[in-house]
Amino acid sequence: MLELRHLRTLLALRDAGSLVEAAERVHLTQSALSHQLKDLEERLGAPLFIRKTRPVEFTRAGQRLLSLAEQVLPQFRMAERDIARMAGSEQGRLHMAIECHSCFQWLMPTVDRFRDHWPEIEVDIPSGHSFAPLQALGREQLDLVITANPVEMSGIQYIPLFRYEVMLAVARQHALAIKGHVEPQDLCDETLIIYPVEHDRLDVFTQFLEPANVSPREIRSAEMTVMMMQLVASGRGVTALPNWALAEYLSRDYVRGLSLGDGVWATLYAAVREDLLGTPWMDDFLRTARETSFEVLSGVKPA
Amino acid sequence: MLELRHLRTLLALRDAGSLVEAAERVHLTQSALSHQLKDLEERLGAPLFIRKTRPVEFTRAGQRLLSLAEQVLPQFRMAERDIARMAGSEQGRLHMAIECHSCFQWLMPTVDRFRDHWPEIEVDIPSGHSFAPLQALGREQLDLVITANPVEMSGIQYIPLFRYEVMLAVARQHALAIKGHVEPQDLCDETLIIYPVEHDRLDVFTQFLEPANVSPREIRSAEMTVMMMQLVASGRGVTALPNWALAEYLSRDYVRGLSLGDGVWATLYAAVREDLLGTPWMDDFLRTARETSFEVLSGVKPA
DNA sequence: AAGCATGATGAATGGTGCTCATGTTGAGAG
DNA sequence: CTCTCAACATGAGCACCATTCATCATGCTT
User: Does the keyword Mitochondrion apply (chains A, B) (predicted)?
Assistant: First the structure.
């Protein structure tokens, strides 16, 4: 009668707010969800949510099922993990590299949690692959790479982790600081500070400056986020970073953050070797990564 | 991957001890269960139980899933009950009659529990239908009848509650009391005390005496179990009763209990109006009855 | 009023979970 | 040792139903 998939659907619906997006999350069509929920409501004899509102609002019955889902689904995951551990004496390995330069704030707690669940998996972030991590992935020297720039490669799948806004950091006393957002032209007299990578892998260029055919007056690079922040704060340039990378500097009012145009958004992916996808521990890592990053970054408010 | 039906199957398997009987309990074929469990074990990558032993023995993985099932399935039931209550303002009614003369010891706790879960259902055991309860069921004056003698009737379904052994009660000093069981011939010089119903509705006759073509010397009847016990204890006759009806007298060593031949077993049924089957509260009542009777009667040891 | 997004609906389809029929295994009896 | 019986495994076929596709209805935005 009541099935696990119903619970998953309802959770997805609550998190998504609409059938269309909930459908994406559970990898089904909107139609499927509509049918599924209609059937369920008929069988239970009670409406579960109100469709007219946005985001959808749950009835008391719906809320009861949501709370059931939150009780029960974790128990299932735990059991499945336990079983997988009992089954798998297969020593797994999870060696990763990070292409995104400031992921540690959510990656470290993720790894900590994961180690708890899978003590026998060897987790490491070996240095030495920071130059060409995707190639190392292809050569099976690595198992997972965190990146914002998916590049089609055979044997590698890109799993989206979360979306974020790319924002411009400027000094507090900067002329632009009073505006809520900047236009491309605003940057033509600025010094832009970037990580030392090709321009076509930076969303400021591909999604913001190049479409408007604007170039900043000067471009200089810095390896580390702290360094960039110092330069920005002292008025020697501006830089574009993920909102969550800026978060701590914004909260300390060290720099100011501005949207790029109407907002430039990007998605962070985990590039994973296909042969590892589907193993319970890899699935669990990806889920943990999503959950943890959500928790850690959800305090991050744009601007 | 892991589904609710798997958990139900595993619980049934544990309670039944074999695939064949477990299949009955979940209303599937043995083949279905074999397939289902094989698939599951393959997907999990771990064996769940050992088939060669009888009753089957569970591996650690199997036990883990059993414990999951015991955590999770009750939570589902509770949620479904809550939802059914929210949905159903439909005042239900549960009027019952008892054809078996000593069911109160497990029926009362059952009713108590049920009332907790379904306060708005009107539960009653109206007197006045003790004569022809099944007819009253057909006339919709009753909703459920507890009986050990299913009689085919349109619109009525018989739901098995539990199996029990019919045992012979004899006085402590009775000649037969030293034996573990009696043969039909042993009764041809005895006075048999029975409830005042037709002989063909008593298993002592249909399953024990008549097949051997034996009649007791004398037959007398009594309305109440206590009365029968007094007669038996004082050596004025013997009687055949369900083991659980005898239990309290046996434990007080008031009478002795003997198996009839290799053991005569019967099943107690709930006769239910078909239109009520499938309503959540009726399903819940039947489940509660089975569980409660099991708990109450499981202390009852034969002889 | 047009355009867009969301949800509903009905028909068609494909997957899969079940049954049926049969094969295999193991235990107990003669 | 073999016969038998019960329990479980296995493969093929089938039926159901969850899902998809195509389309329609509705409401909000511009």
Answer: no
**DSSP H or E run through A136:** helix A133-138
Q: Which 8-state DSSP code applies to residue A65?
A: H
Phi first, then psi: give them for residue A256, nearest 5 degrees: -115, 150
A45 to chain B: which residues are within 8 Å by CB?
84, 87-88
Q: How far is the CA of B34 from the C1' of C23 (A)?
A: 15
Using beta carbons and an 8 Å cutoff, which residues of B are at the interface with A?
1-4, 44-46, 60-61, 64-65, 68, 71-72, 75-76, 79-80, 82-84, 86-88
Query: Would A87 be classed as within a structural domain?
Result: no
Burial classification of residue B83, based on how many CB atoms lie within 10 Å of its CB (0-12 exposed, 13-18 middle, 19 or more buried):
buried
Chain A residues within 8 angstroms (CB to CB) of chain B? 1-4, 44-46, 60-61, 64-65, 68, 71-72, 75-76, 79-80, 82-84, 86-88
What pLDDT tens digit does each residue of chain B (303 aa) get? 899 999 999 999 999 999 999 999 999 999 999 999 999 999 999 999 998 888 899 999 999 999 999 999 999 999 999 998 888 766 789 999 988 777 888 899 999 999 999 988 999 998 877 778 888 888 889 999 999 888 888 888 888 898 888 999 999 999 998 888 898 899 999 999 998 888 888 889 988 898 889 999 999 999 888 899 999 999 999 999 998 889 889 989 999 999 898 888 888 999 999 888 878 889 899 999 999 998 888 765 443
Q: Are residues A232 and A259 located together in one domain of the fold?
A: yes
CATH assignment at residue A24:
1.10.10.10
B87 vs A44: CB contact, 8 Å cut-off?
yes
Q: How many domains does chain B have?
A: 3
With H, G, I as helix, E, B as strand and everything else as coil, classify residue B64.
helix
Q: Residue B302: inside a domain, yes or no? A: no
pLDDT, tens only, A235-290 = 999 999 998 888 889 989 999 999 898 888 888 999 999 888 878 889 899 999 99
Per the structure, the complete domain to which residue A286 belongs is given by 93-161+268-297
Q: Which chain B residue has its CA at the smallest distance from A73's CA? A: B72
Q: Does A152 share its domain with A274?
A: yes
Domain identity same for A278 and A157: yes
Q: What is the phi-psi region of residue B17: left when phi exceeds 0, alpha when psi lies from -120 to 50, beta otherwise?
A: left
B268 forms bridges with which residues in the sheet?
Answer: B162
Q: Residue A8 in contact with residue A26, Cβ under 8 Å?
A: yes
Does the CB of B16 sit below 7 A from strand D? Answer: no
CATH number of the domain that residue B254 is part of: 3.40.190.10
Decide which of B86, B112, B136 is a domain's last residue.
B86
Same domain, A148 and A292: yes
**Strand C: which positions are within 7 A of a protein CB?**
5-11, 17-22, 26-27
